[in-house]
């Protein structure tokens, strides 16, 4: 259930990635991907536009 690559490409046009902001492809059905985030930093995780197939 990954985000669509074309959606990520559009988002990157409007929101520049930097040290504090990244656009990442994640699968919302795999919590181990979220567990891989460093635990020494604060993160805001936004999962939007999830479409069930």
Concise summary:
The protein is mainly α and 53 residues long. The chain has helices at residues 5-14, 31-35. The protein is built from two helices and no strands.
What would you call the structural class? mainly alpha
Overall number of domains = 1
Query: Which geometry do the CA atoms define?
Result: flat
How many strand units? 0
Radius of gyration: 12 Å
What's the average pLDDT?
78
Spans where pLDDT lies below 50 across 5 or more residues: none
Alpha-carbon distance between the termini?
8 Å
Element order: H for helix, E for strand: HH
Helical percentage: 25-40%
Strand content: under 5%
Largest sheet: none
Q: Given the structure, what is the number of helices?
A: 2
Please, could you describe this protein's structure?
With 53 residues, the protein is an all-alpha fold. It has one domain. The protein has helices at 5-14, 31-35. The longest helix has 10 residues, at 5-14. The protein starts with a helix and ends in an 18-residue tail after the last helix.
What is this structure's SSE topology?
Elements: H1 5-14, H2 31-35
């Amino acid at each position: 259930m990954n985000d669509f690559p074309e959606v990520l490409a559009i988002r990157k046009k409007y929101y520049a990635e930097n040290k504090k902001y990244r656009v990442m492809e994640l699968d919302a059905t795999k919590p181990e991907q979220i567990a891989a985030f460093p635990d020494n930093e604060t993160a805001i995780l936004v999962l939007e536009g999830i479409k069930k197939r």
